Amino acid sequence: MGAEIGDFDDLVRRYRRELHVYCYRMLGSFDEAEDHVQEVLLRAWRSREGFQGQSSVRTWLYRVAVNACLDTLRRDARRAVPARLSEPSSAAAGAGPSVAAMPWVQPYPDSLLDEVAADQPDPEAVAVSRETISLAFLAAIQLLPPRQRAVLILRDVVSLPAAEVAEVLDTSIPAVTSALQRARATLREQWPDGRLNWAPAAEPDPGQRRLLQRFIAAHEQADPEALIAMLRDDIRLVISPQAGEWNGRRQVGDALRDGMTALGQWRVLPIQANRQPGAAGYLRRPGETAFSPFVLVVLRYEHGGLAEMAAFEQPSMFAAFGLPDSL
């Protein structure tokens, strides 16, 4: 056993978050990524005596992670999403597939992504840049067959050489090249506005921060019209895991007027998720005294307006964002 793997605790500290992000991309679920990275580390511990040092520890751990995720995806028919399930409507042209059709998808806290960027040099830091962790990218790659998804992430995001990806997947370099070409073609079709060179996007500008402040104020002041005034004509609203999807300013506006104030009063805190601005909504229902966790919303701004609101009614995720359990 090589000296590099001698201190397993050091390996866990160094690679755990990076492996968690990989499993998250493969599975789409923050919670399931947590389960899988624990399984990956357990498998790695059990097989550590067989590590011969012929590849890097990082490549070896990725092989364990890939196999764990592929095992799950083979067993889970729920994720067998037809490639044509979500065609962009005219109202949401270019926005890509919708997470409304993928009830397992969850947001990822930026504070945890920062752990990878801080601890690892390029190219690992690029692996958590905004474009490659956005909800649009995540939704698009969920439509890829699992092995193509694995190849795309390992080659175009993690930046492993083709020979290492072939080793990870126990296949040939030509097979990796072919799978990558097919995955890129599908991604271009499903997410036409996305990029394949993965240049990190700019941080939110002051205008975007002002829009987030207006978003929060509209909810806390129970003013749906103020929120509707922020919407682009091609706005898309998605409420996961159950409620559904609305496209276009008229549809989304009607939904906001009907539902924004129906449940009770709101308090809203700003968050960052998937390298996008967002908000954590706390709800106080009639007769209650405290505001309780209710929804996490990830926002996409374009050209001075709101282009997409992805709402996740998953109060259990508030802890992952370091948010209080009541207000």
Describe how the helices and strands are arranged:
Elements: H1 8-27, H2 30-46, H3 57-75, H4 110-119, H5 130-133, H6 135-141, H7 146-157, H8 162-169, H9 173-190, H10 206-220, H11 224-228, E1 231-240, E2 244-247, H12 249-259, E3 265-273, E4 276-284, E5 292-302, E6 305-312
Parallel strand pairs: 1-6
Antiparallel strand pairs: 1-2, 3-4, 4-5, 5-6
Helix pairs in contact: 1-2, 1-3, 1-4, 2-3, 3-8, 7-9, 8-9
* % residues in beta strands: 15-25%
Strand order of the largest sheet: 2-1-6-5-4-3
Q: In oligomeric terms, what are we looking at?
A: single chain
Radius of gyration: 21 Å
- The total of beta strands comes to 6
Mean pLDDT: 85
Helix-strand string = HHHHHHHHHHHEEHEEEE
Could you explain how this protein is built, in words?
The radius of gyration is 21 Å and the shape is globular. Strands 2-1-6-5-4-3 form a six-stranded mixed β-sheet, covered by helices on one side. It is built from twelve helices and six strands. Helices cover 45% and strands 16% of the residues. It has two domains: 188 residues, no CATH class; 116 residues, Nuclear Transport Factor 2, Chain: A. By secondary structure, the chain is an alpha+beta fold.
Give the structure's gist in a few sentences.
The chain has helices spanning 8-27, 30-46, 57-75, 110-119, 130-133, 135-141, 146-157, 162-169, 173-190, 206-220, 224-228, 249-259, and strands at residues 231-240, 244-247, 265-273, 276-284, 292-302, 305-312.
